[in-house]
Amino acid sequence: MTDTSDETGKKTANGGPTPLALMRAAREQLAELTGLYPEALPRLERTEEGWVLDAEVVELARVPETMSLMALYEVTLDPDGQLTGYRRVRRYERGRSDRG
Fold first, then answer.
1. Which helix (H) or strand (E) holds 27?
2. How far apart (Å, rounded) are the C-alpha atoms in residues 91 and 73?
3. Which are the contacts of 87, defined by CB distance < 8 A and separation ≥ 6?
4. Which of 1, 49, 56, 94 could be bridged to 40 by S-S, CB 3.0 to 4.6 A?
């Protein structure tokens, strides 16, 4: 098994992007499209069509910071890491936990 990665580690042994490269690409593309830079990417999952990940962003900064309005976006990528879609799935105040 030969590794085809360059010095930045953007390819796996089969020639596809690494999970780290996918997450970086998704973060950059979502920020460019929405103007919102993801603070966290808590989910990355391979699908039949490519990849899906979740991105947490600050939609409205407030003081104190615990009152900032956050949003969770679901982002879809093709197998090469190109963004194919995104949608907001949830909005919440930063200081609020999930009800369970």
1. helix 19-34
2. 9
3. 73, 74
4. 56
